[in-house]
Specification:
Blueprint: E1 8-12, H1 17-28, E2 32-36, H2 40-48, E3 55-56, H3 66-77, E4 83-86, H4 101-128, E5 132-137, H5 141-144, H6 150-170, E6 175-182, H7 191-196, H8 200-206, H9 216-227, E7 238-241
Parallel strand pairs: 1-2, 1-4, 2-3, 4-5, 5-6, 6-7
Helix pairs in contact: 1-9, 3-4, 4-6
The chain binds NADP nicotinamide-adenine-dinucleotide phosphate (NAP).
Amino acid sequence: MNDLQGKVAVVTGASRGIGEASARALDSIGAQVVLTGRTVEDLERVAEELSNSPVIIPADLAQAGAGTELADRILNEVEGVDVLVNNAGIPMRRLPEKLTEAEIDLVFAINVRSLLTLSIALADSMKARGGGSIINVSSVASVRGPGARVAYAGTKGAVDAMTRALASDWGPDGIRVNSIAPGLIATAIWEESRNTIPGLIEEMEGQIALKRWGFGDDIADVVAFFASDASKYVTGETLVVDGGLARVSASASPQVLPELIE
Ligand SMILES: NC(=O)c1ccc[n+]([C@@H]2O[C@H](COP(=O)([O-])OP(=O)(O)OC[C@H]3O[C@@H](n4cnc5c(N)ncnc54)[C@H](OP(=O)(O)O)[C@@H]3O)[C@@H](O)[C@H]2O)c1
């Protein structure tokens, strides 16, 4: 059921982290993967370990027109697209008072605008192939209200809202659109904070019910689920994949008065 033989899957932000793990997962179940990101050496390193004739197409998704242009280049290289993993994204950790307009524009350009324009520009190809699956990587930031991340949280809330809206637009064409909201995943996105904020790892782990950070493959397994027929009747959903961070009490102690416990 998880078989993607003969399918073409595009992964943005495939040069490391969650995107790299997703590319590996999709390749392992048979998809030909198109890897995109800015850093060619990293894309080449990822491609070397894939088996199904991976294709590398570098692109900077911060630029106006980048999503549409990338789609054109992809469709010149492969015969069509069945799966799109919109994973590329940047963080933006700032107090609201310190945020500049240029920073707001940048995080929305990459996390929202290019995600939408790339999806729109590849939708016709999916329709022509009888349907497809779009998987948007959002964040628990969209449901949790994190401090000092208002612009980032805004982009991820937009991603989840667009996921539902596109599922409505393209459901009749057989295109499913879902999003994954990762929690704390140990990737480069956290590297600076992990190195500079003492006790960050322990503090964060304390908030997670499963008591560990996630890894790229924790998300990639769910990407493979949404990409394949294992999720054929699921669309417009956001699946939180966070070890129990956003919606589960992480405390092992009872949260009610002792006299109320049976
Ligand atoms: N890690 C977490 O805890 C976490 C939690 C929730 C959500 N997420 C989301 O998961 C996604 C992947 O994050 P990650 O943790 O794997 O981060 P990462 O290791 O920093 O990877 C980010 C990816 O996005 C690409 N990218 C960044 N800017 C780009 C641009 N201007 N144009 C094209 N590609 C660009 C990067 O490639 P290049 O640098 O080569 O361009 C890289 O492949 C993001 O959308 C992030 O918001 C992560």
